Amino acid sequence: MYELLFAGLANVVQVKYLLPLALGTLVGVVGGALPGVTITMTIIVVLPFTFGLDPLQGLAAMTGVYVGGSAGGLVTAVLLGIPGTPSAIATTFDGHPMARNGEPGRALWIGIWASFFGGLLGGIFLIGATGPLARIALEFGPWEFFSLFVLALSMVAGLVEASLLKGLLSGMLGLIVTVMGVDPVLGRERLTLGIPFLAGGVEFLPVLIGVFAFAQIMTEVERMGGAAPLADAIDRAASLAVSHLKVIWEIVSRPLILLWVAFVGVLPAIGGSAASMMAYDQAKKFSRHPERFGTGTPEGIIASEASNNANVGGSLVTIMAFGIPGDAVTAVMLGALTIHGIQSGPLFISQNTQLAYGMFAAYLLAHPIMVLILALGSRWMLRVTTVPKAALFPVVLVLCVVGAYALNNTMTNVYVLLVFGLLGYAMVKTGFPLAPFILGVILGDQIELNLVRSIMTDANPWLFITRPISGGLLFASVASVAFALWQHRRQQAKLSASEGDADF
Amino acid sequence: MPGRDAWAGLAVLAASLVLFGFTFELKDNPLVPVGPGFYPRIVLGITALLAAAVVAAGFLTRRRRPAAAERGIRYGLVAATFAVFGVYVGALPYLGFRVATFAYIAATNAVLDPPRGARDWLRAAALALVATAVIYFAFERYLAVLLPRGRWIGF
Question: Which end of chain B is more exposed for a tag (fewer CB within 10 A), N or C?
């Protein structure tokens, strides 16, 4: 394994890979730092630029975006009090107070180094767990794959902050998108409603681009022109210089917190924002001084930033071992793999060893590059946040059109983009979470194929439960829904207790 | 008066029931134990049940007053942005990427930040020109992505 990793590192340090990796990391950091632009949107913008590159170049660029974006959000979170990405929300709780208390450099660098260490711990999990998990998945039959995909969908639906019912329904809507088009067994057209562009089925990338880009841009557009001040900014002339050894010591002298929050981060399907909030909550619970949280304590920044960067490694594990994207960013990466004709899933690491270890190497190298970029450009990032949205949004939407069009050089995908853009915005306005919908679109075909394969192999439906792994996965799926239900109820009870009577 | 959840649930319920009905038009093949309608029926059936639950929950939950964040939302601006994008998508095959994109970026910029004089119009046009040129050259020349040519103007 180490030999392959060193070979991957030697490969990726070549200029032809290092350049896209560094550019991707830079774009990720800038995109992450821009409030209102998420990592998903940044990677959607970068996607079409990777079409002309070789697979490792494209994936290195995307890995850079992911790592850079996860850390970039902390710059504005700390210095302006506005999280650049949702995964940096918890960073504002202590990062901004520390910056306002006259220590902006310390706050910023605790965040950057915590991202670095958290990311590397996530990397250890990524490199160590992907192979063994893929080997386990190789033993799976169609029953196990079906149950695994159902588990993934139910976990993502259960982890959303909105209602569990809406999360599940959103996942089902994603599955409906995949039943329209061509039946995978007989190859017959079905449920196309006479709409020509549905005849061949719908590709998931234009759906994903449309749903996420429009949902986000339009929710920003609807708030444009307000008179609210941009931020409670710190003095922009304040020094950001710190003793790096001191800052690093502040982080590594709390090994248990670091390890625990990194563990929270790598949990499958949790997502960066949920990971950072959960890790912050855990760090507060375990702290000897929980009362200091929210006033500028380093533990708060470490918990949030280490976990959201560790989450990048966790999300990459599920896509590389099972072909299941852990979040929207890895869903785009899955699309990039498909465009290059590479099948993700349990065979990915054994059939594309060089590419897989190249990705590991790119992931590891993206971290020092991210630190370097932030060391050189943190102050400059603050200027980037002044880019007018009226200029940024149309350019982003044009890049979305190019990304959809370039998939197979037809306007069909652009129409799909528009239709699903409208649907994505409607879903956001009605409180339907987008992540389960997208996962449904991605996994729908595989769920159907494995269901049909298992029935064609043996018509006994009890096999889904009596086969130990399949049964275990289905049980975990039911348990995750039950747990989510319990958690939602507990939250509701807390809310109603704190609100008292409804505000009529 | 039902809230947004109930209406959304009703829309999904109606759509899933209609599609469920269409699955009975799909003919089974005697050689295959599972027909093309088997899986869609499961998916649409579960969707209909969940949608019905959302409708029920929507009717049972008391409607709250719109939150402060909901008030003052500029839906008109959202509609205009969508409309300009729709026109852009419709015009792309006829005007081609370069002309349509230039017009789209300038128009959206003007919709989102209305120009207050000739100087602002010039700035919007300059942004549109530079962005269109950079995207066109980056994709056509360096990334070998062929962008749409206009059917009407051949450009």
Answer: N
B102 touches chain A (CB under 8 A): no
CA A423 – CA A433 distance, rounded (Å): 12
Residue B46, chain A, CB below 8 Å: the answer is: yes
Q: Express each pLDDT in B82-98 by its tens digit.
A: 999 999 999 999 999 99
Q: Please tell me the distance from the alpha carbon of residue A14 to that of residue A17, in angstroms, as a whole number.
A: 6
Q: pLDDT tens for residues A234-252? A: 566 667 777 888 888 888 8
pTM of the model: 0.83
Determine, for residues B40 and A179 on separate chains, whether the beta-carbon distance falls below 8 Å: yes
B94 touches chain A (CB under 8 A): no
Give residue A234's pLDDT: 57
**Local structure of residue A196 (DSSP, 8 states):** G
Same domain, B82 and B135: yes
Q: Does B150 fall in a domain?
A: no
Yes or no: say if A78 and A90 are a contact pair by the CB < 8 Å rule. Answer: no
CB pairs under 8 A between A and B: 170
Domain ranges of chain A: 2-223+239-496
Residues B79 and B49 in one domain: no
Predicted ipTM of the assembly: 0.92
Contacts with A185 from chain B: Cβ below 8 Å: 32, 34, 36
Select from A51, A163, A390 the Cβ nearest to the Cβ of B145: A51
**Nearest-CB residue to B108 (from A168, A186, A393):** A393
State which H helix or E strand residue A371 sits in: helix A353-384
Q: Which residues of B touch A186 (CB under 8 A)?
A: 29, 32, 36
- The pLDDT of residue A40 is 84
**Are B48 and B13 found together in one domain?**
yes
Q: Domain containing B38: what range?
A: 4-60
Distance CA A32, CA A76 (A): 9
Q: Examine residue B69 and state whether it is found in any structural domain, yes or no.
A: no
Residue B42 lies in a domain: yes
Residue B106 lies in a domain: yes
**Count of the separate structural domains present in chain B:** 2
**Do residues B10 and B52 both lie within one domain?**
yes
Query: Is there a contact between A224 and B74 if contact means CB atoms under 8 Å apart?
Result: yes
Q: Of A137, A133, A159, give the one whose Cα is nearest residue A146.
A: A137
State whether residue B139 sits within 8 Å of chain A by CB: yes
| CA–centroid distance for B38 within its chain | 30
Q: Which residues of A touch B16 (CB under 8 A)?
A: 176
Amino acid identity at B142: Y
